[in-house]
């Protein structure tokens, strides 16, 4: 396996930009976890909890479908509302989402390469750490992992119990 620094063809400025944006992202995530901005942390916590409960009770396909339907209901309603307002006021403002529709959202090959290089670094780190923990290089760290996984079995059983409770309350199917 080749060293990622020798295969990288990006300039130092672009790698500094990607590392600074990664630092900003990790700083933002740390602020959320430490509840330094309570409003944002509550929103992320409730959103995550809602997603977990939704996936625990419904299939992932259903959750994604309902989410997209909700977004479509909101955007269609807003578009119709704006069209009615424009017709009543006789203005020519145009499509309410025009700026978003005209924004370039395509990925450049360079951006994809930088993302792949960055993800390769993190994936290699995860593989090395997993190997170290699962093959018991350090007994204490592996025991910590085992304790964490054991606690997660209780979290999983709570979600399984909620699912069984919901399924148990459904009306019986008639033959």
- Treating each run of at least 4 consecutive H or I residues as one helix, how many helices? 7
Overall strand count? 0
Mean pLDDT comes to 82
- Spatial extent as radius of gyration: 24 Å
Main beta-sheet annotation = none
Shape by Cα distribution: extended
Specify the structural class.
Answer: mainly alpha
Please trace the helix and strand order, writing H or E for each element.
Answer: HHHHHHH
- What proportion strand? under 5%
Q: Report how far the terminal alpha carbons are from each other.
A: 60 Å
Low-confidence segments: 1-15
Helix content: over 70%
Pfam family, one: Reticulon
Region (Disordered): 1-20
Subcellular location: Endoplasmic reticulum membrane
Domain Reticulon: 29-175
Relevant terms:
single chain, 175 residues, mainly alpha, 7 helices, 79% helix, 0% strand, disordered N terminus, Reticulon
In short:
This protein is mainly α. It is built from seven helices and no strands.
Q: Could you please describe the fold and organization of this structure?
A:
There is one protein chain. The chain has 175 residues and is mostly helical. It has a domain at 109-175. 79% of the residues lie in helices and 0% in strands. It is built from seven helices and no strands. The chain has helices spanning 4-7, 12-33, 38-57, 60-89, 98-102, 109-134, 139-169. The longest helix is centred in the C-terminal third of the chain and has 31 residues, at 139-169. It starts with a helix and ends in a 6-residue tail after the last helix. 0% of the residues are buried. Mean pLDDT is 82; it is low at 1-15.
């Amino acid at each position: 396996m080749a060293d990622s620094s020798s295969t990288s063809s990006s300039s130092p400025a672009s790698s500094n930009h990607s590392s600074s944006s990664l630092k900003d992202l990790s700083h933002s995530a740390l602020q959320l976890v430490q509840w330094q901005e309570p409003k944002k942390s509550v929103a992320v916590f409730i959103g995550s909890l809602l997603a977990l409960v939704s996936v625990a009770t419904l299939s992932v396909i259903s959750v994604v479908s309902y989410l997209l339907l909700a977004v479509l209901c909101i955007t269609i309603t807003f578009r119709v509302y704006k069209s009615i307002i424009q017709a009543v006021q006789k203005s020519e403002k145009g499509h309410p989402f025009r700026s978003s529709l005209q924004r370039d959202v395509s990925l450049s090959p360079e951006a994809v390469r930088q993302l792949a290089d960055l993800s390769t670094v993190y994936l290699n780190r995860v593989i090395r750490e997993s190997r170290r923990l699962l093959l018991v290089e350090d007994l204490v760290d592996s025991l910590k992992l085992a304790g964490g996984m054991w606690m997660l079995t209780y979290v999983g059983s709570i979600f399984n119990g909620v699912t069984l409770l919901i399924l148990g309350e459904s009306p019986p199917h008639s033959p």
